[in-house]
Design the sequence.
DNA sequence: GCCGTTTTGACAATGGTTGTCAGTCTTGAT
DNA sequence: ATCAAGACTGACAACCATTGTCAAAACGGC
């Protein structure tokens, strides 16, 4: 999770964006642009791949979705539930995600940066593990 | 930074690996495989691109270099100074890096994971900011 | 020096992501 | 409702980092 600022700009409402939005609403975990595209295709709501990418990018720029990189370096997206800055606890196996608010870490990161004279600080933090369900099987 | 464990296996010493090693020794900041390859080429020590990738991957597997993803999703590598798990404070502008050891965060991450029943926990954490030098200019 | 293995390198192939550009749709104004 | 301006879309090409392939070369132990 990278801290972001920026207000949000206006965008036109289109069938494609609505479709992407809907999928995001119905999806608990992180999803890649490719997966989202494939999903839309199976649902019959055909949306161009390029459009999916553009839409997700726009949403990310506006801070309406979280973006993070999978271990494979693929970008994955997810509707941002909390408005404030937060982090994720992600299951390595099934992808189940828990959003985490970490005042502790925020402060820690800030103080570390201050110590070294770094300004305009942001940070990324993700925790990976095996969730209870996957651990059981 | 992802937590890693694993012992290290033996590998053969070759001219190419020595060359990659040398560059890593002389490089303070993170460098991508492509950059490293180009650098070797200009130095005359030609090493195949595929070899550079394989070498870096091996080093990473053995825990001898740190790997992280740039915002662009490109993998960047750096000789690992500390042996234990640590994080980085990276200058957004010039790439200058400070290695950070964070017992605080380690504990915090562990406890959060425990709370949600997640096991085999690892985590990634990078702090980005503008370093004093870049902020001055 | 010899031999089984590992490693290399040139190149093809993969795959996610972005660029292009003509055609389409949304919006605010009339 | 109608219209013009320009934002948005889609099909496809282009990019580019990374990985796969496989014959040739290098390494290390004997």
Sequence:
């Amino acid at each position: 999770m990278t801290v972001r600022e920026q207000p949000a700009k206006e965008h036109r409402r289109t069938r494609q964006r609505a479709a992407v939005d809907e999928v995001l609403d119905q999806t608990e975990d992180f999803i890649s642009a490719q997966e989202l595209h494939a999903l839309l295709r199976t649902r019959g709501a055909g949306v161009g791949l390029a459009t999916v990418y553009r839409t997700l990018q726009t949403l990310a720029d506006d801070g309406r979705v979280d973006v993070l990189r999978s271990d494979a370096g693929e970008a994955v997206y997810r509707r941002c539930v909390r408005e404030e800055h937060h982090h994720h606890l992600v299951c390595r196996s099934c992808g189940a995600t828990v959003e985490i608010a970490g005042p502790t870490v925020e402060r820690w990161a800030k103080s570390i940066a201050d110590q070294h004279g770094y300004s305009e600080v942001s940070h990324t933090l993700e925790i990976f593990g095996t969730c209870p369900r996957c651990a059981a099987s």
